[in-house]
Amino acid sequence: MRLAGKTVGFGIAGSHCSYEEVLPQIARLREEGATVVPVISETVRTTDTRFGTAEELRRRLMELTGFTPIDSIVDAEPTGQKKTFDAFVVAPCTGSTLARLANAITDSPVIMAAKGTLRNGRPIVIAVSSNDILSGNALNLAVLLMRKYVYFVPFGQDNPEVKPWSCVADFDLITDTVVAALEGRQLQPLLIERRRRPVR
């Protein structure tokens, strides 16, 4: 029960192919004693894909956490004012979300909740899932690696032969990264050999 008494925000961005790996981590956080509150982006709230519908995802998040997902900037803003979250996870964190975080573009519920958490001097934990993190988003990655209170779930190239600029976090390490972040340290090693996800 390493997270007993802690409230963890769980922000979900639009890397739909990652959800089956990401969502079980909510249960692991809860097994460690955390209260988990989901926050979803506009894309997640409105987009149906071959991986499932937006409504199915919403329903699943409610079952996993016991909370209705926060899905608007208006509803996300008070989480910072009320110091709701002891830590805030962004998983999966797309390249677009990473760029917004790096450049303080607060145009989604996930970014608003992350911003509020940082404002309170509390950690955010980023689990990347991006096809361009070693190219177009490399600068944004570097900016966030240097930023105080920002921690990364260890990540690596998921398919370097086919997608040499793509990196994905090891989502199984989300809970350990949150625990480390609350202690003020980055879980190591940060760069890992990432197992290849099955082709879907």
Architecture overview:
With 200 residues, the chain is α/β, with parallel strands linked by helices. The protein has a single domain (1-99, 141-160, 168-194), classed as Flavin prenyltransferase-like (Rossmann fold). It has helices at residues 19-22, 24-31, 42-46, 54-65, 73-81, 95-102, 109-119, 138-145, 174-182; strands at 7-12, 35-40, 87-93, 124-130, 150-152, 155-157, 167-169. Strands 1, 2, 3, 4, 5, 6 and 7 form a seven-stranded mixed beta sheet that branches. The mean pLDDT is 94.
Give a nutshell description of this structure:
The protein has 200 residues and is an alpha/beta fold. It is built from nine helices and seven strands, in the order βααβαααβααβαβββα. Helix 5 packs parallel to helix 7 and helix 6 crosses helix 8.
Question: What are the SSEs and their pairings?
Answer:
Layout: E1 7-12, H1 19-22, H2 24-31, E2 35-40, H3 42-46, H4 54-65, H5 73-81, E3 87-93, H6 95-102, H7 109-119, E4 124-130, H8 138-145, E5 150-152, E6 155-157, E7 167-169, H9 174-182
Parallel strand pairs: 1-2, 1-3, 3-4, 4-5
Antiparallel strand pairs: 4-7, 6-7
